[in-house]
Amino acid sequence: MKRNKVYDLLIFVLSAELTGVLSSLISGGGRTLYSTFEKPPLSPPGWVFPVVWTILYALMGISAFLIYHSDGEPVRVKSALRTYVLQLIVNFSWSIFFFRFEALWASVAVIAILIILVIAMIVKFAKIRPAAALINIPYLVWLLFAAYLNIATAILN
Question: What domain range is 48 assigned to?
C-alpha cells in the first residue's frame, strides 16, 4: 500500500474512532447511568459496548477508505461518502440523547434514523465496492440489536 493510502486509512479509521470517543465524553460516559437501568433480556454487560463500538468504528473507517479510493463514478462516491458522514453525525448524537439527556424515547427515534441511513450507506457502498458494503453488515446488525435494547430499556424505565 502506498504511503499516502496508509495515511488516508489511518485518517479514516481514527476519525471514525474519534466520533465514538467524543460522543462518549460529551454524553458523560454512560456506564454509571446504564448500570442503574432495569435491563431487558439479552442485555450484555456494560464492558461489551466499548469493545464492540471500537471494532465497529474501525470497520466504518476502513469501508469509507475503500470507497474513497475506489474507481467508482465521482458523483456516486461523493454521495456515498456524504451518507457515511451523515450517519456518523447521527451516530454521534445517539449517546448524547440516551445518556446525557436521558431521553430514552428520543434516542429510539435517533437510532431509527441511524438504521435507515446505514442501510442507505450500505446500498450506496455496494454499488461502488461491494466489500465496503459487506464490512458494514456487523454494524447494521449491532444497530438492530441496540434498537431492541433502546426500546426495551425505554419501556422498562
Answer: 3-156
- Please tell me the predicted confidence (pLDDT) of residue 34: 77
**31 has pLDDT over 70:** no
Cell output for 4: 499516502
Band the pLDDT of 120: cuts 50, 70, 90: very high
Burial string for 38-66 (b: 16+ CB within 10 Å, else e) reads ebeeeeeeeeebeebbeebbbbbbbbbbb
Q: 121: domain CATH number?
A: 1.20.1260.100
How far apart, in Å, are the Cα atoms of 129 and each of 43, 45, 77, 147? 34, 35, 10, 27
Domain count, the chain: 1
